[in-house]
Amino acid sequence: MKKIGIITILNVNNYGAELQAFALHHKLKRMGYDNEIINYLYYKNPEYCAEEKSKPLIKTSAKNKLKDLVLKWLDKYSAFKYPEIAKVRKDRFDNFHKKNTLVSKKYKSYTDLYDQKHKYDTFIVGSDQVWNPNNGTNIAPYFLTFAPEDANKVSYASSFGVGSIDKSYYPQYKEWLNNLTHISTREDAGVSIIKNITDKNATHVVDPTLLLSRIEWEELMVPYESKEPYILFFIFKKNAYAEELAYKIQEKTGYKIIRVCKNEMPLESDDKILNIRDFGPAEFLGLYSSASIVLTTSFHGSVFSLIFEKPFYVITPANKNNNSRQESLLNVVDLKDRLLREGDTVNLDEINSINFETVNHKLNKHINSSVEFLKNSLD
User: How far apart are CA 377 and CA 316, in angstroms?
Assistant: First the structure.
């Protein structure tokens, strides 16, 4: 049987990244394709070995270098201050993949990946922001330039993570994109970028997590038992607007607030927000399944709100215009009113007004066409 190798973002201790990686692998397996994830470590993984060849296309700004440094420091600080929480969380992430995901040997560097003679018939670059020009590493591997020249090379739901690319980078991107046999992207903005750079018509597909049904996700979850309804607060960093909105919803509904996060964050006292920091992917799914309302800043937070049919709002920064991921997704299901910019006024009387029957009808059409793209690219 022919075999498929998938490269994507993995092993970064992030719910969205790990679940999208698993989802594409699992969907292909359900479709009858033998496949595994090529375990090329993302540059943010502590074990990744940076080298001259892995330098990024765009020189990392001092601001982004500082941001990466602060995040690494927070990880180390949290693990040092709360070693048991850090260990339980890591074990849960590791065990999720050991149980559910077929993964190749580990490639810790650019050279490791390119020196290997990969024995796959088809190579797929998966979803997430693998094509973001601001990634602090060489993104050539995510255009499958390490694969044999005559191999079938497919992109599935690969994301630029931005609404546009500086024209000075068009020549490099054109060379990379022309290396692919079949091209799809996760956002409609990505379709436009590819058309502008290569004059090719890329296919707009759904994120891999949407390829699995609610029932399939529930089969993987660890149920979360709660005696009272709760607002799931899935926010990456402190956000005053999001917190204020959560408290307004709490005042209106009487629901408690549960935050699922990684690091120890300076939030309100535990009697106002329950911080959960040691959940793995399976526990995260259980928390979503039992939630009554979701507030999130995460793209995948929006996705799982749709999958589990939860009333939700996704919050984006007022001073940034890189919201193409959320906009594209919510455009598909006609829920642009659920996309908030910090500072927006919200009519809480309409929080439960989503018609998920209509949403699912629109979403299923897009999911079906995405599956067709996969079949046509692989057969």
Answer: 34
Q: Which residues make Cβ contacts (< 8 Å) with residue 185, sequence separation at least 6?
A: 155, 157, 158, 159, 160, 191, 193, 194, 202, 203, 204, 205
Full-model pTM = 0.94
Where does the chain show beta strands of DSSP type E? 3-7, 34-40, 103-107, 122-125, 152-158, 182-185, 203-204, 230-234, 256-260, 273-276, 293-296, 312-316, 339-341
Q: What are the pLDDT digits (tens) for 164-207?
A: 999 999 999 999 999 999 999 999 999 999 999 999 999 999 99
What would the pLDDT profile of 182-191 be if each residue is shown by its tens digit?
A: 999 999 999 9
Residues with Cβ within 8 Å of 158's Cβ and at least 6 positions away in sequence, in order, are 125, 126, 127, 128, 130, 131, 142, 184, 185, 186, 190
pLDDT category at 323 given cuts 50, 70, 90 is confident
Total Cβ atoms within 10 A of residue 200: 13
Confidence of residue 81 (pLDDT cuts 50, 70, 90): confident
In our burial notation (b when 16+ CB lie closer than 10 A, e otherwise), range 154-193 reads bbbbbbbbbbebeeeeeebbbebbeebebbbbbbbbbbbb
Domains of the chain (ranges; CATH) run 3-213+365-378 (3.40.50), 221-356 (3.40.50.2000)
Q: Is 196 helix (H, G, I), strand (E, B) or coil?
A: helix
Q: Can you tell me whether residue 293 is helix, strand or coil?
A: strand
Mean pLDDT calculated for residue range 310-320: 89
Do the Cβ atoms of 234 and 301 come closer than 8 Å?
Answer: yes
